[in-house]
Design the sequence.
């Protein structure tokens, strides 16, 4: 079975630009969460969506937004990129036992 | 605010040298404590979930235990392939949804 898939794998942007990251959950999982992981730190929660509705939001500015589609895939959007947004962005889907399974992430570099 | 502190930050072991990683947590009510393994450039890989004090789980050379304030990940006779960053995370009872609060991880290196 396919795991959580994220695209693109790597991305380079400049300050002020906008970026869209995509995630497809494991088949049968209806919940998707997004995390930001800065080098050397643990992942920080950004958003969770379940059945297309937002179920949780972490302490991130309004420049960060997300949505979930009818097929349970999800997009994370970040506007007006800052240097500090450079990080590994992780997507996780949750099974019925409440265990989160992570994708390989999108490495975003902001120059 | 939920908090997770992991120690040590880094640990070097010789192959076969057993040791333990610590995860101390503060949470208003614990729904679950999770251990993940993360290899460089990859996403975290699920290892264990623990729900109540006294609970233990094992998988190959790894054993996770839980008390009311901390969790330990015991590594018995480690091999070089056990080298990775080990992440601990908590989920609070009051959380709507499945938000995880992670520690900063312990980077384990096992030398042959």
Sequence:
């Amino acid at each position: 079975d396919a795991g959580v898939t994220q695209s693109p794998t790597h991305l380079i942007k400049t300050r002020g630009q906008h970026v869209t990251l995509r995630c497809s959950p494991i088949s049968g999982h209806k919940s998707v969460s997004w995390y930001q992981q800065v080098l050397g730190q643990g992942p920080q929660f950004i958003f969770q969506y379940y059945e297309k509705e937002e179920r949780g939001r972490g302490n991130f500015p309004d420049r960060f937004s997300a949505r979930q589609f009818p097929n349970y895939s999800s997009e994370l959007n970040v506007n007006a990129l800052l240097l500090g947004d450079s990080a590994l962005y992780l997507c996780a889907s949750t099974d019925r036992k409440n265990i989160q399974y992570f994708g390989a992430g999108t490495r975003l570099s902001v120059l | 605010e939920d908090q997770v502190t992991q120690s040590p930050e880094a640990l070097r072991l010789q192959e076969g040298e057993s040791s333990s990683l610590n995860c101390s947590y503060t949470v208003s009510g614990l729904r679950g404590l999770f251990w993940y393994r993360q290899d460089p450039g990859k996403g975290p890989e699920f290892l264990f979930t623990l729900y109540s004090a006294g609970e233990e789980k094992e998988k190959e050379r790894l054993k996770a235990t839980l008390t009311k304030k901390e969790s330990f990940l015991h590594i018995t006779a480690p091999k070089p392939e056990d080298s990775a960053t080990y992440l601990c995370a908590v989920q609070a009872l009051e959380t709507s949804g499945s938000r995880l609060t992670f520690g900063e991880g312990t980077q384990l290196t096992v030398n042959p």
